[in-house]
Design goal:
The complex is a heterodimer of chains A (about 300) and B (about 1200).
Chain A: H1 11-18, H2 22-27, H3 35-51, H4 55-63, H5 71-88, H6 93-105, H7 110-122, H8 126-133, H9 140-152, H10 156-170, H11 174-187, H12 190-204, H13 211-223, H14 227-240, H15 245-257, H16 261-274, H17 279-295
Helix pairs in contact in A: 3-4, 3-5, 4-5, 5-6, 5-7, 6-7, 7-8, 7-9, 8-9, 9-10, 9-11, 10-11, 11-12, 12-13, 13-14, 13-15, 14-15, 15-16
Chain B: E1 15-20, E2 26-31, E3 36-40, E4 45-50, E5 57-62, E6 68-73, E7 78-82, E8 87-92, E9 99-104, E10 110-115, E11 119-124, H1 126-133, H2 140-147, E12 161-167, E13 173-178, E14 184-189, E15 193-199, E16 204-211, E17 217-222, E18 228-233, E19 237-242, E20 248-253, E21 259-264, E22 271-275, E23 278-282, E24 291-294, E25 297-301, E26 306-311, E27 316-317, E28 322-323, E29 336-340, E30 345-350, E31 356-361, E32 375-379, E33 382-387, E34 390-395, E35 400-405, E36 410-414, E37 420-425, E38 430-435, E39 439-443, E40 448-453, E41 460-463, E42 469-473, E43 477-482, E44 487-492, E45 497-502, E46 508-512, E47 515-519, E48 525-530, E49 535-541, E50 544-549, E51 554-558, H3 562-571, H4 575-584, H5 590-598, H6 602-605, H7 612-622, H8 625-635, H9 638-651, H10 654-664, H11 667-677, H12 680-693, H13 696-706, H14 709-718, H15 722-731, H16 735-745, H17 784-801, H18 807-811, H19 863-870, H20 874-879, H21 883-894, H22 903-911, E52 914-917, E53 926-929, H23 950-966, H24 970-985, H25 992-1022, H26 1033-1045, H27 1053-1069, ...
Antiparallel strand pairs in B: 1-2, 2-3, 3-4, 5-6, 6-7, 7-8, 9-10, 10-11, 11-12, 13-14, 14-15, 15-16, 17-18, 18-19, 19-20, 21-22, 22-23, 24-25, 25-26, 26-27, 26-28, 29-30, 30-31, 31-32, 33-34, 34-35, 35-36, 37-38, 38-39, 39-40, 41-42, 42-43, 43-44, 45-46, 46-47, 47-48, 49-50, 50-51, 52-53, 54-55, ...
The chains are: A mainly alpha (about 300), B alpha+beta (about 1200).
């Protein structure tokens, strides 16, 4: 039986992880799990730590783990190192090649697929990542990743196809809903509202609330043009974690839209302080340069 | 139906004949008491009695126009009476047995009579008419003749002469009647025959005989408008005969009662037959036209059995498409029609031959009533299409449903539940099977029942257009069910329900015999309109109800759907719709108010009511205290205040409670309220009031509340309760007081034995001043609806306040005291570089805006790229991140060259274009693109969101800028208006209509920048002084000129007033009396401020004495000119100039090619196509 399915032992742990409730994942009592599920649970807990930027801790835990030579934990290790490098703003080529190597040797392991796929995609090697992930056999984690990579490549059609296929056999699984919402946020129109419902349901139930789902809700509302509601959702997220980079970057966007120039500026500065490596910052800086460069093409003449 | 109105019991013995008058509220009766009585059915009284007959009176009839009554009697005579002067005017003798029946001809002066002497006689009464309708001058003989009217005249003729004697019956004749239009007579006799006779001017003869009755035939008549004869007899049957073929069409037998008489309704298709035990009212044929609706088309079968189509949208009736003459039997109209749009075929059933159906294809074009060529037919009581190529046929006799294909071969057979009487379409692949007591939803594929609902006697099923609901119509009930046969609601009607159809909004409209009514899903129903004739509804659209009348003609009836739409909106809580209805229609009235109240929407009802009492009730009910207080004040009745106080207390609104107690002069409660709210001051005041009122109990209470021991002792002393005073003093340790009391009462301390007392109790002191605010314990109910209404009211209120320009502000320009008169507008000058822009303005920019990012194989283009592709607006290109093309566009559209000032705007737009949705852990967030048309999904139409719409600019920068103008903060103002120009320069508006708004805003902002810049330049020159005598002559002249130019830009009138006022004062102070005079004149003419006008008049008076300028300045108030925004000198019309292509500000032509001073972006005089703000 699929351990992640509704009846499986890992379903809660898995849901916690994908609802971005990483603390719950780490605190999850794994002692009652059957032996076959211990390793996947371990992997999820380590991933949660990495997601919470407790990379060093995760690395040391791996090195002292009895199963450290399993491909699963090797993959986690690669992810941890990648995450570390990413935060430090270092080049990711080394991590990517390590991931590629592991994927070559243990490409059938689902954790290897998912984690190496993440690393490869994060390093900008989308095609390779898709190749690794393509070997999955009914892993929703892998499908979610594939959907995201397609979306990053602006292949809405492929992403939608993938999500719809998963919908057919996994039905109402949380991850399918979330992945569909990602697609919906690109499609727009009525899909905005559908995506909003998914995020809102997660964000407003105390048992499933997380910063990430609140941000999701806020973003959906922003796209729907419901700005005061989006602001309220962001504020809710701010109360949970004021320094979340995704929160900050979306605050910048929303404040700009609302014409709150000073607030937008403050949020931007805070983001630059807390997460200087954040991609949007680089994007904005690049655009500033572009602007200046483009200005040079014109030579205005002023009245003396 | 069939209610007894009244009984008229004055005849002695049986009443045999009766007739209603055609126009007057009269009827006549004749009976076995030999009497003829005329009655009024309004007063329900017998008006008079006509005596004369000597035996039973058999029949009585009114003449259709003359005031005559015709009677026939067993005394063998027929008599004519005038019911106006109540006299017998003619007696006709001739029959030699009982005359059983005599009737007037409907048009001519003829009478026909039947008698047991076996003859039928036709009488000519034209002589009688002549005699009674020619009031010419009368001779004595005439009068004599008249007096003996019923005597034969000198030639032996009477007024009525026998014209024909018709012999043919072998026994007595019981009844005879004229045909309404043709020269035909029908008679019925004891020889069991019905005979038809024809007559001409000169003779009459027997045409034919209808044989069939096997007992005496009592009565017969011609059908009022069809070629039929009806007869009734003692054989207990009613028979219908074909007039042309004289064959029996139909017969009806009653078990035990012999029929004696039959009558036809003059208009409606109804007949009445009297028998041994009562009267039977019946119709000959089904009047409901068979019809089916498909989309905008109604297919129906006319009375001639022609199939026609009616188009609702075009309101056109097609010519006949088919003739179904051969279907069923003649005189039997088809029962149902089912339409199959895919095959353009119809399935028609007829009850003839114990039920049959025909499947016919409709011709492509309606070319007249052709006989169908290819007809499939079979036996069955009901037949409906259930799929494009299948139909179901139900046969009641053998209780079987056959599913057939279009070639009429059975593909499946179903055994319906026992007692099934009818079948209807039940949604895709399903049937609704009707039994006497229930409805069954039956799945044809699975051959099983899906649901069953107990409903009695369903006759018709009407599906809603969305197929989600159906209405089951019984004789007196409407049951609404869902498509899965769940009952939604049911209602009962006392009047028979005829038909129903669904409104698009889900309201069922149904018709009874005389009303169109509606019902909502929740069972609320009401009358929509009354009907004069019964109709069969087929469709509702807007205010039109389409129906078929009984003649199978499509009709459109107008209805007012407001009421049910309102109720529907209420049920759906669609407040916008409700508001709209309230605004656009006159839907006010007691009924709607009580409806709202009953349904629990008092707050909405409140909006409709004017009457204070009702308003008060409603306000209390919905807890709207404000309104309640307002109304209570208007009405000012103690009972209302009482109720208000209770309600307010429940709300915790103690301020209202306080007021009501005050109104009610409820001092005790008031004191207690103050105690509870801790309002000590007022409590003290209450104590004083109590003292004034001399109310000791109240005083005591207040003193207790206040813990005012002295007051209490004082009070006890005043009312001579010394023991209480003493013990109070003692227990509070007030020994001095004790002594006083003892002295006053003449006791000593040891004479008094006291019980032991503990510590005196004191009421707690208030810690928090809770009386300052209400305690909102119960939220006031205010619906969205109410808010919407209030919102509207606020919107109206806002307008007048926006133009506030108060006195203190007005005076400021007079004394420009602040020293911050630095001008920065002219100092923007940067190193001027060679102007070589020409080649950039090339049309090649058109080429390719798209900036496809180099992506890996397999990647698509992002939405941002689409934006740039979809839009020629610069702002959209910025949002897409394509700054270069955006600049090219701006350059082309408005000649923009200096982009530096736009940088914040570029950043803002780009920043607002994307959101970041966190997705999988470890990967960067997903970028999504914010659209300004969120409901759009067509990738060729999506467009980015651009921050700052017209409205936000109007309420933001524009207002701030104008305020800066008023507050004399011109530096801030210039900056604000420039920012506004930049925001507008790179923007996108929501509608085509906003383009002109945006352009007006650009113009306004530019004029303000110009005006403010001129004034700032003047202040720089004069260093903010009013006195400029110390300046050089040039500067003097220049500053006077600038002050004058400040009045030129097109600003708001109040701001122009400011400029004029400032210029006038400045000129006046500097002895420019002529200029000052002209400004004063303009001010008086155009000024918006009374105070300024006043001082303008004074200055005018002063200046007029000596209208001369000391310095000659270049300002001609009468000339048309613009101000050059660079040099601040006039550009007279006609002289060469150049303008900024963006904001339209003018410059002397020498400035052409430089950057505009106002917007700081566009190049003066550059070729430009005009700004694009809307796709």
């Amino acid at each position: 039986m699929d351990p992640y399915s509704a009846e499986g032992e890992l379903v809660n742990l898995h849901n916690y992880f994908h609802q971005a409730q990483y603390a719950q994942v780490i605190d999850f009592d794994t002692s009652a799990l059957s032996s076959s599920n211990l390793l996947p649970a371990r992997v999820l807990q380590l991933r949660a730590k990495i997601a919470l930027s407790q990379v060093d801790e995760a690395l040391s835990e791996i090195s002292s783990d009895a199963n450290k030579s399993t491909p699963d934990l090797k993959a986690v290790q690669i992810l941890a190192q990648y995450s570390k490098a990413q935060h430090a703003g270092k080049p990711l080529d080394g991590n990517a090649s390590a991931a590629e190597e592991l994927a070559k040797s243990d490409g059938d392991n689902v954790n290897v697929q998912v984690l190496c796929g993440t690393v490869l995609a994060g390093a900008g090697m989308a095609e390779e990542a898709l190749q690794v992930l393509g070997k999955h056999q009914g892993s929703l984690d892998a499908i979610a990743l594939i959907v995201q990579i397609h979306l990053q490549q602006n292949r809405l059609d492929l992403a939608n196809k993938e999500a719809q296929q998963a919908r057919k056999w996994a039905q109402d699984n949380l991850l399918v809903n979330i992945a569909e919402s990602w697609v919906g946020m690109r499609q727009g129109g009525e899909k905005y509202q559908a995506a909003y419902y998914v995020f809102e349901e997660l964000a407003q139930a105390p048992a499933t609330q997380s910063v990430q789902s609140l941000i999701g809700q806020a973003v959906a509302e922003l796209h729907l043009g419901r700005l005061p509601e989006a602001e309220a959702a962001l504020q809710q997220a701010r109360d949970l974690d004021a320094e979340n980079p995704d929160l900050l970057v979306n605050s910048v966007v929303l404040d700009t839209i609302l014409g709150k120039v000073d607030e937008a500026k403050a949020a931007k500065e805070k983001l630059a302080k807390v997460h200087p490596e954040y991609q949007a910052l680089a994007d904005w800086a690049k655009k500033k340069e572009e602007f200046e460069k483009a200005c040079e093409r014109y030579t205005p003449k002023f009245d003396p | 139906m069939g209610t007894l109105i009244d009984r008229f019991e004055e005849h002695d013995g049986p009443v045999r004949g009766i007739d209603f008058h055609k126009t007057q509220p009269l009827f006549v009766s004749g009976g076995d008491d030999y009497k003829i009585k005329v009655w009024s059915y309004q007063t329900r009284r017998c008006l008079f009695t006509l005596n004369g007959h000597l035996d039973y009176v058999r029949t009585v009839f009114f003449h259709h126009e003359l005031p005559w009554i015709l009677s026939s009697s067993d005394d063998q005579t027929i008599r004519i009476w005038n019911w106006q002067n109540r006299s017998l005017i003619c007696t006709m003798t001739g029959h030699n047995h009982y005359t059983m029946c005599a009737q007037f001809h409907p048009k001519e002066d003829l009478i026909v009579s039947a008698s047991l002497d076996q003859s039928v006689r036709v009488w000519d009464i034209s002589g009688l008419r002549k005699k009674h309708s020619a009031p010419t001058s009368m001779t004595f003989e005439d009068q004599m003749a008249r007096a003996n009217a019923n005597q034969a005249d000198m030639f032996g003729n009477t007024d009525a002469v026998v014209k024909f004697v018709l012999e043919g019956h072998d026994r007595g004749v019981n009844w005879v009647a004229f045909h309404p239009t043709l020269p035909l007579i029908v008679s019925a006799g004891d020889d069991r025959l019905v005979k038809l006779w024809r007559m001409s001017e000169t003779k009459a003869w027997e045409v034919d005989t209808c044989r069939g009755h096997f007992q005496n035939v009592s009565a017969c008549l011609f059908h009022p408008h069809q070629d039929l004869i009806l007869s009734v007899g003692e054989d207990k049957t009613v028979r219908v005969w074909d007039l042309n073929k004289r064959t029996s069409v139909q017969s009806f037998k009653r078990e035990n009662d012999r029929f004696w008489v039959i009558a036809a309704h003059p208009e409606i298709n109804l007949f009445a037959a009297g028998h041994d035990n009562g009267v039977m009212v019946f119709k000959l044929e089904r009047e409901r036209p068979a019809s089916a609706v498909y989309q905008n088309q109604l297919f129906y079968i006319t009375k001639e059995k022609h199939v026609r189509m009616y188009d609702f949208a075009k309101n056109v009736e097609s010519p006949s498409m088919l003739s179904l003459k051969k279907l069923g039997a003649p005189w039997t109209p088809p029962r149902t029609l089912s339409y199959n749009p895919a095959e353009r075929a119809i399935l028609v059933t007829s009850p003839a031959d114990s039920g049959c159906y025909e499947l016919v294809s409709l011709p492509r074009d309606a070319s007249g009533a052709v006989e169908p060529t290819d007809t499939k037919r079979g036996q069955g009581n009901s037949a409906v299409f259930v799929a494009r190529n299948r139909f179901a046929v139900f046969n009641q006799a053998n209780q079987q449903i056959d599913i057939k294909d279009l070639t009429n071969s059975t593909t499946k057979t179903i055994k319906p539940p026992h007692g099934t009487t009818d079948i209807y379409f039940g949604g895709t692949g399903c049937l609704l099977l009707i039994t006497a007591t229930s409805v069954v939803l039956y799945d044809i594929q699975q051959k099983k029942q899906l649901a069953e609902l107990a409903v009695n006697g369903v006759k018709y099923v009407v599906w809603s257009s969305d197929g989600l609901h159906a209405a089951l119509l019984s004789k007196h009930n409407v049951t609404i069910v869902t498509k899965s046969l769940q009952q939604v609601s049911t209602l009962h009607e006392t009047i028979r329900i005829k038909s129903a159809t669904w409104d698009d909004a889900g309201v069922l409209l149904y018709s009874t015999l005389n009303h169109i009514k509606y019902t909502l899903m929740n069972g609320d129903n009401g009358i929509v309109r009354t009907l004069e004739h019964t109709v069969y509804l087929v469709r509702v659209k807007g205010r039109n109800v389409y129906c078929l009348d009984r003649a199978a003609k499509p009709k459109i009836l107008q209805i007012d759907p407001t009421e049910y739409r309102f109720k529907l909106a209420l049920v759906k809580r669609n407040y916008e719709e409700m508001l709209n209805i309230i605004r656009t229609s006159s839907l006010v009235g007691q009924s709607i108010i009580s409806y709202l109240q009953k349904k629990g929407y008092p707050e909405i009802a409140l909006q409709f009511v004017q009457d204070p009492q009702t308003r008060f009730e409603l306000a209390i009910e919905c807890g709207n205290l404000d309104v309640a207080v307002e109304m209570a004040k208007q009405l000012d009745r103690p009972l209302l205040w009482q109720r208000l106080s209770t309600e307010a207390l429940a709300h915790g609104n103690h301020q209202v409670v306080e007021m009501t107690y005050q109104k009610l002069r409820n001092f005790d409660k008031l004191s207690f309220l103050y105690l509870a709210t801790g309002e000590q001051d007022k409590l003290r005041r209450m104590a004083k009031i109590a003292e004034h009122r001399g109310d000791m109990t109240s005083r005591f209470q207040n003193a207790l509340y206040l813990n005012d021991v002295e007051n209490r002792i004082e009070m006890f002393k005043e009312i001579d309760l010394y023991p209480l005073a003493y013990i109070t003093a003692k227990s509070h340790g007030l020994e001095d007081q004790c002594k006083d009391i003892l002295e006053a009462s003449g006791f000593t301390e040891d004479q008094i034995s006291l019980p032991s007392v503990g510590q005196p109790l004191a009421p707690p002191k208030p810690v928090v001043p809770t009386f300052k605010a209400n305690w909102p314990t119960k939220s006031t109910s205010s619906s969205t609806f109410e808010k919407a209404l209030l919102g509207e009211v606020e919107g109206l209120d806002e307008a007048p306040t926006a133009n506030g320009y108060d006195e203190s502000d007005l005076l400021e320009p007079d004394v420009p005291k602040a020293a911050n008169g630095e001008l920065d507008i002219g100092e923007e000058d940067e190193d001027a570089e060679g102007w070589d822009m020409g080649d950039d303005v090339d049309a090649e920019v058109e080429g390719d805006f798209v900036n496809v990012e180099t992506a890996e194989a397999g990647a698509g283009s992002s939405e941002a790229d689409l934006w740039a592709r979809n839009s020629p607006i610069a702002a959209d290109h910025i949002a897409a991140g394509s700054f270069e093309t955006a600049m090219q566009l701006l350059n082309r559209q408005i000649g923009a060259v200096n982009f530096k000032p736009l940088q914040p705007r570029f950043e803002e737009i780009y920043q607002a274009s994307k959101t970041y949705l966190p997705a999988s852990a470890g990967l960067p967030p997903l970028v999504n693109y914010v659209r300004r048309n969120p409901s759009e999904t067509d990738s060729r139409k999506v467009l980015p969101f651009i921050p700052r719409d017209i409205e936000s600019i109007t309420v933001g920068e524009l207002q701030a800028g104008k305020t800066a103008m008023q507050k004399n903060k011109l530096e801030d103002g210039v900056q604000l208006f420039k920012k506004m120009l930049h925001i507008l320069m790179v923007n996108a508006v929501a509608s085509a209509g906003e383009i002109s708004q945006a352009k007006a805003l650009i113009h306004t902002a530019a004029q303000y920048v110009l005006g403010m810049a001129i004034e700032l330049e003047r202040r720089r020159l004069t260093k903010n002084a009013q006195d400029i005598s110390s300046l050089s002559d040039d500067d003097k002249k220049r500053s006077l000129e600038l002050s004058a130019y400040f009045t030129v830009p097109e600003m708001e009138p109040s701001h122009v007033t400011l400029a004029l006022f400032s210029a006038m004062n400045f000129a006046h102070k500097n002895k420019q009396l002529s200029s000052a005079l002209s400004f004063a004149n303009s001010l008086i003419e155009k000024g918006t401020n009374a105070k300024f006008k006043e001082s303008a008049r004074k200055i005018k008076a002063v200046c007029e004495r000596n209208p001369n300028d000391t310095v000659d300045i270049e300002f001609d108030q009468f000339a048309e000119f613009d101000i050059c925004a660079a040099s601040y000198t006039p550009i007279y019309s006609g002289s060469p100039s150049s303008a900024c292509p963006f904001d339209g500000v003018k410059y002397h032509s020498k400035y052409k090619g430089t950057v505009c001073k106002v917007c700081e972006v566009a190049q003066i005089g550059a070729p430009a196509s005009g700004i694009r703000l809307f796709v």
